[in-house]
Automatic annotation (TrEMBL):
GO terms for cellular component: mitochondrial matrix. Belongs to the class-II aminoacyl-tRNA synthetase family. PROSITE patterns: FDX_ACB. One of its GO terms (biological process) is translation. This is phenylalanine--tRNA ligase. InterPro entries: aa-tRNA-synth_II/BPL/LPL, BMT5-like, Fdx_antiC-bd, Fdx_antiC-bd_sf, SAM-dependent_MTases_sf. Residues 499-592 form the FDX-ACB domain. Its EC number is 6.1.1.20. It is found in: Mitochondrion matrix. The keyword Mitochondrion applies. The keyword Nucleus does not apply. It comes from Nesospiza acunhae. Keywords: Aminoacyl-tRNA synthetase, ATP-binding, Ligase, Mitochondrion, Nucleotide-binding, Protein biosynthesis, Transit peptide. GO terms for molecular function: ATP binding; phenylalanine-tRNA ligase activity; rRNA (uridine-N3-)-methyltransferase activity.
């Protein structure tokens, strides 16, 4: 094992420090034990005191920092800000910063009682400004440290109260993502084409969560469900090489929920090439029933392309080609993409698992029950292995499913008629979270003796419910500490490595163009893009109509917060300014 080398620093000179009671003895003990003692060190300028080869500290401890005398919370925040920025220059990549504070000073929920935010040192937000996240908090027990005394009250040789004191452990955050433009290649009909990825999805394309070597929870759940279903049905996986793009006008689906894309110059396939392998390319006419609606002004032309919002058209195309064996369960899986409003459970990209089965007419209800019972059994076994809490899974008739549908359930309704919603809860809470839908399609097959039954599951929502993940963004985290919690695909209860992330609230108000409706989904999608998914909520605060003119003004409250990366107040303020500029430019509103 590597030998531990301790460096103790002091702000004062050695002569000044040695004159304080007991200090000379402590200095001597440190040096006798092999520690290095350095004096006249400014904690906000650490790199000036250590040569480049000695700037890789594994641990940096700062017990009870204080500016001295009667310094208030603002000065002490400034001290901590300088300290954290200084640590960033001398801390090893996997290193830790330990800061002990008196009870209440930190301003986190771990403090009991908790001070008001403005009256605290706001340590998590201050550290975030230097790129650090709070990963652990535990009591500071001075009595367990031999010879330790807490002195220095108001720069005097007096002790201060450390009852309830806390040790805050900070680690480096992953660096902010640089959202540059990205081109992606996919199969379309008989040829490969490239397209520009929408900026909001740059870090969602080609992540490989369902690949063979992946240990991501969504793959584990997909494999476990497939294994369970294979016990009851012959099973065939047909998920490889499903094209990311679909073409045409998605009948029945709201345009604002679609990610439209443009093919790279010179790559748009001609009519002749598109006629080859149309089932592979998947025309959007396979969506539900064609409503016959016309393309509205400003909407994409019918021959443009969009990222697939569902795997259902792929299954329908396979059925129409005749590559479908009655009695065999066909399993399709892959990422799908849908524009939606911002919430912890509304995701613009997720992994869908679609199972499709052709059964004899009249047996579809018993087949559905077999599917659901099998999914229940797999879910129960997975959940018991994680926490011992038995999930409550139920089928709810689509006709009786209440209003206020989740974005997932509401979009599924746009894709076509639904017979049942698959909902999950716990023994303590009744089922309420919709994680899947079940459909029957009597007219899909040429044979009048067969009916197609399909079940669509949102694997990301299942992973969140099973592993106790409260925010969908965590599933896409690039921080290695996320996947380390699921070694070799083992499902466990997730433990956050970023505690009490700070949030920053900003309001934005604007006048709407005369006579035009406001597209909230477009607004939310713009906020996702501008912030790099750092907006956790958008709430309408005021809807005002000016007397006389009839002009409408909206005011929204935008909350910025990251679930896994450091987000400082200055960065959030810059995002808010950028958002204001973008909504005025792209949504045609007039800022107030």
């Amino acid at each position: 094992a590597r030998a531990t080398h301790v460096v103790a620093t002091c702000y004062e000179s050695e002569e000044e420090a040695a004159g304080r009671g007991g200090a000379a003895r402590s200095i001597r003990r440190l040096r006798d034990s092999g520690a290095e003692v350095v004096f006249s060190v400014d904690c906000t300028k650490l790199k000036e005191h250590f040569a480049p080869g000695r700037r890789e500290f594994d641990r940096i401890y700062f017990n009870f920092p204080h500016c001295g005398r009667k310094a208030g919370v603002v000065k002490n925040r400034q001290l901590l800000a300088g300290f954290f920025h200084s640590c960033a220059e001398v801390l090893a990549q996997e290193g830790e910063i330990h800061v002990a504070l008196c009870n209440g000073q930190g301003g986190t929920p771990a403090d009991q009682p908790r001070r008001e935010w403005h009256n605290s040192w706001q340590i998590v937000a201050v550290a975030a400004g230097a790129g650090f996240i709070l990963s652990h908090v535990h009591p500071f027990k001075a009595e367990t440290i031999d010879g330790y005394k807490c002195t220095g009250y108001r720069s005097q040789d007096k002790s201060f109260c450390v009852e309830g004191a806390l040790n805050h452990i900070f680690t480096r955050s992953t660096a902010p993502l640089c959202f540059t433009s990205m081109s992606c290649q996919t199969q379309l009909g008989s040829q490969k084409v490239s397209f520009q990825v929408p900026q909001v999805l740059v870090d969602k394309i080609n992540r490989g969560f369902l690949d063979v070597n992946s240990s991501h929870p969504v793959r584990t759940i997909k494999e476990k469900l497939s294994a369970g279903l294979s016990q009851a049905f012959p099973l065939q996986n047909i998920s490889s090489c499903l094209p990311l793009l679909q073409q045409g006008h998605p009948g029945g689906v709201c345009h604002s929920n679609i990610f439209w894309v443009t093919l790279s110059p010179g790559e748009a396939p001609g009519t002749e090439k598109m006629s080859q392998g149309l089932a592979d390319a998947v025309l959007c006419s396979h969506f539900g029933q064609d409503t016959g609606e016309n393309v509205q002004e400003g909407c994409p032309a019918p021959k443009q392309f969009y990222l697939r919002p569902s795997l259902l058209p792929h299954a329908q195309a396979i059925i129409k080609k005749g590559a479908f064996s009655p009695g065999t369960l066909q399993v399709l899986s892959g990422p799908v993409f849908r524009k939606c409003q911002i919430s912890p459970h509304s995701m613009p990209a997720f992994h869908e698992m679609l199972v499709v089965l052709a059964v004899s007419r009249g047996t579809e209800n018993s087949c559905i029950q077999m599917l659901v019972d099998n999914i229940k059994a797999t879910m129960n076994s997975l959940h018991q292995g994680i926490s011992g809490v038995k999930p409550s899974i139920s089928l709810q008739e689509a006709a009786t499913f209440g209003t206020g549908l989740s974005d997932f359930a509401a979009f599924e309704r746009q894709l076509g008629e639904i017979q049942h919603f698959l909902c999950v809860g716990t023994e303590a809470e009744p089922p309420g979270s919709c994680v899947g839908v079940i459909r029957t399609a009597p007219g899909e097959l040429k044979s009048h003796e067969l009916v197609v039954v399909s079940a669509s599951l949102n694997l990301d929502l299942l992973a969140m419910l099973l592993c106790g993940i409260s925010d969908w963004r965590m599933l896409w985290a690039r921080d290695r500490r996320f996947l380390r919690q699921f070694p070799e695909g083992e499902l466990r209860l997730f433990k956050s490595f970023s505690l009490y992330p700070p949030s920053y609230v900003h309001d934005v108000s604007f006048w709407l163009p005369d006579g035009e409706d406001f597209d909230e989904v477009a607004f939310h999608t713009l906020a996702r893009r501008v912030s790099g998914e750092m907006v956790v909520s958008i709430r309408l605060r005021d809807n005002f109509q000016q007397p006389g003119t009839g002009r409408r003004s909206l005011c929204y409250r935008v909350t910025f917060q990251s679930c896994e990366r450091a987000l400082g107040c200055r960065e959030a303020a810059e995002m808010q300014l950028h958002l204001r500029e973008e909504i005025q430019q792209h949504l045609g509103v007039t800022l107030r």
